[in-house]
Amino acid sequence: MTARIIDGKAVAQRLREEVARRVAGLSFRPGLRVIRVGDDPASGVYVRNKDRAAAAAGFDSATLHLPAGISEAALLAELAALNADPAVDGILVQLPLPPQIRPEAVIDALDPAKDVDGFHPLNAGRLASGETGGLLPCTPKGVMHLLREAGAALPGARALVLGRSRIVGRPMAQLLLAADCTVTVAHSRTRDLAAECRRAEILVAAVGRAAMVRGDWIAEDAVVIDVGITRGADGRLVGDVAFAEAVTRAGAITPVPGGVGPMTIACLLENTLQAALARRGGG
Ligand code: NAP
Fold this sequence. Notes:
Blueprint: E1 4-5, H1 8-24, E2 31-37, H2 41-56, E3 60-66, H3 72-84, E4 90-93, H4 103-109, H5 121-128, H6 138-149, E5 158-162, H7 169-178, E6 182-186, H8 193-198, E7 202-205, E8 223-226, E9 230-231, E10 237-238, H9 243-246, E11 252-253, H10 260-280
């Protein structure tokens, strides 16, 4: 059997078009500001992509590019100005930040109503309390879209989340729990990871180790979502799952690239629209 390939690019494109259509119907342009500190080249690519996608969807989008040597206090002052600006609906701080700036201090200083990454403790706490209507972290939110598109039967399903980061693993587990899955979270201290994976009907891998999940770790017919992105020796992007092996066992699987990646930006747009509507109403 060969797994159905879940086409994240196509699902993300549909979501972006839907957001653009809704933005076109508003009497105002939702405002998104992306803060980039320093010159990390990978961050540069991410920020440009976010900016372009936001502009294409009709948002008023701009990047604030700050010097690598900026102090934490000066960055917090920039954030405070964006928090206070009524034209700004969403603020995103591109990580990683230089060592003199504590990421928690920056995330805590964001207005939770403009926190379109969903990382502020208030938004994370709401999700941990079982509320899913707030601003949700973009990557796990994108995974939920893909699972629904794949027709995955979620209530009662045994779901395994591989990874427990604040950005992906933890919120992913909360969203699957809210969707009535029976959730296990695995991490670097988990014993017999292969056995845990083999029990999973839904497997979300978010580790960042190329092809770590082998084909024989996958249950027949499982739905496999590969969040991991690593650059292989030949320069190509690879996921956490050994795709060529897994595709012969899974029921459905996301490729890397072209799976979860495109969903993250689409969900950022969706979150910005949601934040704008919550702040200003339907216009
Ligand atoms: P992270 O903060 O480094 O977390 C990685 C997690 O994997 C940790 O919980 C860690 O466990 C666990 N882990 C590491 N080695 C392991 C092992 N040998 N066995 C089992 N678990 C192990 O990474 P992240 O930010 O969550 O990102 C994970 C991956 O997703 C990366 O490849 C990243 O590039 C990718 N990503 C993709 C998108 C997208 O849009 N597609 C978005 C975000 C991230 P401990 O907690 O025990 O250390």
